[in-house]
């Protein structure tokens, strides 16, 4: 029977994916529950299960005394010496109190407790496993679609892809394999509730980490991500090694790396730009594929004025302002874009500087003498005039 018990523990461990120690602890709790249903059960009893042999017994701690007054908590010195001659008064002895008929009836009564504890252990194990995968990518198979929510089978658990986290341009079919970003793992009475997303910017970041070894190794750093899910995205990358081209590493040979990500996101367009510590250069790069003539920045207000060629204005702004909007999200700067002709018109419309009137005219208008004349100066001027006449 003990061998059968060990085999059952082994089977449960493999079937439920729960460690043997957790099952043995649960079984000990079940044995105590079953024992306490017995008449005259000792309330202080504990169960002990030998993990090697499968033997189990119920032990009640009792204090060694000269005369027993309470049989539930005390044992006589003579009885203790039968167990071990080294016991003395005051020692605590674990006495085997396993009932003779302890078996089928008691085990049946405790069966539900065992099932409940195993379920709790399984739920906790699943929660611990997936809570460690928050902010990471998981791959699953779409199991069903109910009330606009997509349920993804992850093997041991089920994830929910709510409507708010779905890409508007995507369609989801039962049996389809998809990659999702783990947003949150909640612990509920029914087990772990896993919330996943297809629109989160982190999904794009993790996909590049999977496809680009340089990002995973830390040689290339992904500085920022801006997404309009299903339509277009921009990422800014920076290389810590001067010999490694950050943009080229992300694009891959013949564009293979970025194309795999585009395919996974069902043809979402991705712009890869080079990050720069100079805000003006960074903003110019972020407006790619448009070329930029000049960028002026106000670091205090985090605003910038960008001038582009006339024929590039629509490209810089993008359809419905998409390119400019993504560039602003990527750089975290407010961007004002103007064409060269618009910038020239604004420069010409600037008010001209008003001419400063002559000093004499200004002073006469104000009725203030230009120089205060002294009597000596007046006499010198009169003498000079007489000499000029002669």
UniProtKB/TrEMBL annotation:
Record key words, sorted: Cytoplasm, RNA-binding, Transcription, Transcription antitermination, Transcription regulation, Transcription termination
Keyword Plastid assigned: no
Ranges annotated as spanning the membrane: none
Location in or out of the cell: Cytoplasm
S1 motif domain location: 135-199
The keyword Transcription belongs to this UniProt entry's keyword annotation: yes
PROSITE patterns tied to this protein: KH_TYPE_1, S1
Superkingdom field: Bacteria
Pfam families on file: KH_NusA_1st (PF13184), KH_NusA_2nd (PF26594), NusA_N (PF08529), S1 (PF00575)
Record family assignment: Belongs to the NusA family.
Subunit structure: Monomer. Binds directly to the core enzyme of the DNA-dependent RNA polymerase and to nascent RNA.
Record-linked NCBIfam families: NusA
Role this protein plays: Participates in both transcription termination and antitermination.
Protein name listed in UniProt: Transcription termination/antitermination protein NusA
